[in-house]
Give the backbone structure.
Amino acid sequence: MWKLDIDEAQIGWLHFDVPESSVNTLSQQALMQLDQVLDVVSNSNLKGLIILSDKKKDFIVGADIAEFTEVTNVDGAEAFMNTAHQTFKKIEDLNIPSVAMIHGNCLGGGLELALACDYRVATEDAKLGFPEVFLGIFPGFGGSVRSIERVGVLAAMTMMLSGRTSIAKKAKKMGLVDDAVPLRHLRHAAVFAIEHASHTTSRKNTILEKIMHTDLGRKLVANILRKKTKKLVNPKHYPAPFALIDLWQNYGGNRALMFKQEVKGVASLIILPQAQNLVRLFFLQERLKSLGKGQPSTIKYVHVIGAGMMGGDIAAWSVLQGLKVTLQDQNGEVVAAAIKRAAALFGKTLYTPRARQEAMDRLIPDLHGDGIKQADLVLEAIVENLEIKQGLYQAIEPQMKQGAILATNTSGIPIDELAKKLAHPERLVGIHFFNPVAKMKLVEIVAGKATDEATLQAANGFVTAIHRLPLPVKSSPGFLVNRILMPYLMEAILMVEEGIKPEAIDQAALDFGMPMGPITLADRVGLDICLAVANDLSEISEGKIPEYLNQWVQAGRLGLKSGHGFYHYKQGKIVQSQDASGRIYQEDVPNRLVARITNEAIRCLREGIVADADLLDAGMVFGTGFAPFRGGVMKYIATAGQESMMEMLDVLEDKYGERFKKDDGWR
Ligand code: NAI
């Protein structure tokens, strides 16, 4: 995995290349081999050492996460991390200058390795960060200590607590890398660092930082960090960030002890169910990604029809990922508004004016639909109405180029219905995005009976190419995610009808670990859309739709978009609930919410809406944000115990009626 080349200037170039893998990860074996090479290096008379990756795309993407799943106890976890600590200490102790020469992703354990070097030089667009919190842990290869030493406690903690990556240009400003250069200058920058090494690379603390490093200073700063973090996550659900803050508060004054306690802290986190569930989700995500891999996507040019909330955002996202898009709507103002939203997205996510301009150039308003003839994919996102969609397809199908595919973003109209009037139903597929497009990773790929394999492959390839996760689902009303979500939303809405306060219902869901309460979610999605989907589903799912929802929608009370739904909104923010006098709480609230979700999930599995329980979990987590630390709906059932879930349904059925009747699938 490691190859040491020595040049005429006596500089050692240590190449890392994990065989038969598209990325470099730090497995135990990779670490042990590195350790051996470092012994050779320290006994040689080299002038300096440059560590680089032979992979085209990345430096090192992190530790080998597959090995996390083999760790079953604290001792095993500690042994795992001690290997890395010992090896990185060898890099740090070399009596020659060392440089990490970084391109592409330099994440987690990869960044920890780079931090053990004296210098870090990177390509301008390299990405550096600590995504460990997303796996329920924090950096455990010495990174918590070394990152604080390099960039100061506030910047380092922000990186580790948020899991966010920085591009090298920004990382240079904070001192995480010493130089950020175009790729063609990277080798030169690495050699320059060695030739001009001063060996005084450690950063000088400012007076403020010196204060922060006193016992009292650490206590104060740790409290602020705790308070901020608590606003984002619940410590019971996600203990890792809080354990990291504790670590620094307690041991930040003693380097050797902090290294030791870092290992202990991460070891005790890694064996918790939260971390194990998050690691499982990581692999489920890889599974979804693999569906669209294999060959490059054939779709380079997309024509989107319907520039409303979804169509406009799908167009912008596809452009951001490098595709060319023409955007059509019957209403020119809607297209203009979508382009304005796209410009805001590019402004937030693209770093150079040139990149932003190039993106704007790839997004083309097209009121007359000229793009239909040239696009590889025509994606429809117009109103949710069968006849109107069918009419549009009849008009555009003859214009589409040969081999192009037609996709619909319908929330739940069966593909077979939509395909009825098409000459080529085999090239129609559902590509169902979730709202907001830039945030929700999941995209349901819905095959009709006639949809052919080539169309499905093209759809999977497109979704993967734009960095979303394709999930194959059966064409049945609501597909998978809305099908499971809707009974849960309707139960919440029924509870409001019974007089329970919306705030109390939302809080129960947040306490369970949902990213947003069901009442807020219904307001966000739009009460009209909720009602339409609930009506579509009413034939196949038990449950009633509250009458007042119909009345509200007719009166234009649609939720966030109309400024008034369950809550009142001012500039997109909740100002007060519609009825502050409701009952505060009722003990059945959380059970009723959970019971509707789990029962519907079991029903979907029985009906084969999705191929297996793992895919169902991936769908619910990446499509709705279902409590990731619980690992998904099916994982939750397994953890809570199937028997006790069934008993809960029996109790609720007695109390609230038929809609809680256990599905046959439980048996
Ligand atoms: P929207 O009402 O914001 O946008 C629809 C747009 O289509 C409007 O701008 C309208 O002018 C345009 N349009 C209607 N007929 C047209 C035609 N024949 N030719 C060209 N343009 C036409 O609706 P939204 O929310 O974007 O939904 C679009 C589709 O996406 C629907 O099928 C919906 O079920 C689905 N969807 C909606 C989600 C949501 O959260 N709103 C989530 C996922 C899917």
